[in-house]
Specification:
Elements lengths: L1 H77 L2 H32 L3 H31 L3 H26 L3 H25 L5 H4 L9 H36 L2 H37 L5 H40 L2 H4 L5 H17 L1 H5 L7 H22 L1 H24 L7
C-alpha cells in the first residue's frame, strides 16, 4: 500500500514538473520572439494590455478559482459535490454578466471616440476578452488540481503557453506588427484552450457523476452552498484590489514617470526574473496545495490542522532554498542571459535582473505562507498584508523612480516584498483555525 501511494505521488510530481517545464520554456520563447518582433515600446503596450486582462482575472475569476481549489475536499468529505458544482455554474453565470457589461461599455467608448482613444480602446477590449478566456481556463485548472488530475493540468497548461505564442506570431504576420495583433493571438489561443478544457472536465469520470446527480447522503441546499462559497470568496475581492495594484501598477507608474519604452524593458526583465520563480511556485501550488488542503479537510480536528501545517512548513523551507539559488544565478549571469532571451535594447539594463528576482522571491514566499490561512478558512486575514505591500510599493516608487529610473522600481519591489513577507508571518503567528 505504501509503495503504491509513493508511486502515485511520484507520478503526480513528474506530471507537475513536466507541465511547468514546458510552460517555462514556452514563456522564454514568447519573450524572445515578441521582444524581437515588437521592440521595447510596443512590448510595453502589450504589457499594459495584459495588466487589464489581469484585472478581469483577479477581480472576477480569481475568487472562483480559489473556491474551486479549496472546497472540493470539503464537499467531497460531506458527500455534496453536486451542490458545489451547481454553485460554481451559478458563479460563472454571474461572472459572464459582469464581464459582458464591461465589454459593452468598452465597445460604446470605441464607437464614440477615434484616434489614440480608439487604439487604446481596442487594446483594452482585447485584454478583457483575454481575461475571460484565461479566467475560465484557470478555474477549470483549479478544479482539476483539486481532484489531483496532474496529467490533464500539465497538458492544458503547456498547450496554452505554446498556442498563445503560435497564434501571436500568426497575428503579427496577418494583422501587422503591433501589440493589438499579438494580444488578439493570445485571446484566440486562450479561448480555444478554455473550450477544450471545459469539454474535458465535463467528461472526467471524477466530475461527471456529480454534475447533475444528488448524493443520497447529502443534505443542504444550493442556496446555503452559495452563501458559504460567497462568504469564503468575498475577501478575495478586496484582496484582488491590492493584488492587482501590487502586481501591475508598477507598469502604469513607469508609464507616468518615464515612457512606453521603459515599460517594455521593465516588463521583459520582470518576465525573465519571474519565469523560474513562477515555475517553482507553480510546482508547489499544483502538487502540494491540494495535498495540504486534503490533509486539512474541513479543519475540524487538531490532527488535520497539524498535519497540513507540517507539510506547508517543509515546503516553505525547500522553497526558500530554491529561491536563494535562483537569485544567486540571476546575479551571476544576468547580462548574457538577458541578451540571449531578448535583444541589445533590453540587455543594457540587465543589472536590474537579480534585484527584481529578489523582490519577487520575497513576495512569492509570502504568497506560499498564505496557504496556511486558506487551509484554515481565513482568507480575510491577509487583506492587511496586501494593503501594506501596495502602500510600500507606491511610496517607494514615488521616492525612487525619478532619481534611480528603473533601478528604483526594482528596489521598490524588494521593499514591498519584504514588508508583505513580514506581515504574512505576523498574521500566521496569530492565526486561529476555523472549521468549515
Amino acid at each position: 500500500m505504501q509503495k503504491t501511494r509513493l508511486a502515485r505521488i511520484g507520478a503526480e510530481a513528474a506530471w507537475v514538473a513536466a507541465g511547468q517545464l514546458l510552460a517555462f520554456l514556452g514563456g522564454f520563447a514568447t519573450i524572445k520572439i515578441l521582444t524581437g518582433e515588437l521592440g521595447a515600446a510596443a512590448y510595453g503596450q502589450l504589457a499594459l494590455g495584459i495588466s487589464a486582462a489581469g484585472a478581469v482575472h483577479m477581480f472576477v475569476y480569481g475568487p472562483i478559482e480559489q473556491i474551486a481549489l479549496r472546497f472540493v475536499s470539503v464537499y467531497r468529505e460531506r458527500g455534496r459535490l453536486h451542490l458545489l458544482f451547481a454553485a460554481l455554474r451559478r458563479l460563472h453565470m454571474h461572472a459572464a454578466a459582469i464581464v459582458g457589461l464591461a465589454i459593452i461599455v468598452v465597445t460604446s467608448v470605441l464607437y464614440a471616440f477615434a484616434g489614440t482613444a480608439w487604439a487604446w480602446g481596442i487594446l483594452i477590449l482585447l485584454a478583457l476578452l483575454f481575461g475571460v478566456g484565461g479566467g475560465v481556463s484557470m478555474t477549470l485548472a483549479s478544479l482539476l488540481s483539486a481532484f489531483r488530475q496532474r496529467a490533464s493540468v500539465a497538458f492544458f497548461q503547456a498547450s496554452d503557453v505554446w498556442l498563445r505564442l503560435l497564434l501571436a506570431v500568426a497575428g503579427l504576420a496577418w494583422l501587422g506588427t503591433s501589440a493589438d495583433a499579438a494580444l488578439a493571438g493570445f485571446c484566440l489561443a486562450t479561448a480555444t484552450i478554455a473550450i477544450v478544457q471545459l469539454a474535458w472536465v465535463m467528461r472526467n469520470p471524477l466530475v461527471r457523476p456529480h454534475l447533475h446527480g444528488h448524493s443520497a447522503s447529502a443534505t443542504g441546499t444550493e442556496g446555503s452552498t452559495m452563501g458559504e462559497l460567497v462568504a469564503y470568496g468575498r475577501p478575495y475581492l478586496v484582496w484582488a484590489a491590492f493584488a492587482w495594484c501590487s502586481t501591475y501598477c508598477d507598469r502604469w507608474l513607469i508609464l507616468g514617470y518615464l515612457d512606453e519604452r521603459s515599460v517594455g524593458i521593465y516588463a521583459a526583465l520582470l518576465q525573465i526574473a519571474n519565469a523560474p520563480i513562477a515555475i517553482f511556485l507553480g510546482m508547489v501550488n499544483q502538487f502540494l496545495v491540494p495535498l495540504i488542503f486534503d490533509r486539512a479537510g474541513a479543519a475540524t480536528t487538531q490532527g488535520q490542522i497539524r498535519s497540513s501545517a507540517a507539510l506547508l512548513n517543509a515546503a516553505t523551507a525547500a522553497y526558500v532554498l530554491g529561491l536563494t539559488v535562483i537569485v544567486g544565478f540571476a546575479a551571476l549571469v544576468a547580462e548574457p542571459l538577458v541578451r540571449l532571451l531578448t535583444s541589445s535594447e533590453f540587455s543594457r539594463h540587465a543589472d536590474l535582473l537579480w534585484v527584481i528576482c529578489l523582490g519577487l522571491s520575497l513576495s512569492s514566499t509570502a504568497q506560499l505562507l498564505v496557504i496556511k490561512g486558506l487551509s484554515h478558512g481565513r482568507p480575510q486575514q491577509y487583506v492587511l498584508p496586501k494593503f501594506v505591500q501596495l502602500a510600500l510599493l507606491i511610496a517607494s516608487m514615488f521616492l525612487l523612480v525619478q532619481p534611480m529610473a528603473l533601478m528604483g522600481v526594482a528596489v521598490s519591489l524588494c521593499i514591498s516584498g519584504a514588508g508583505y513577507l513580514i506581515m504574512v508571518a505576523w498574521v500566521n503567528s496569530r492565526l486561529v483555525a476555523h472549521a468549515f
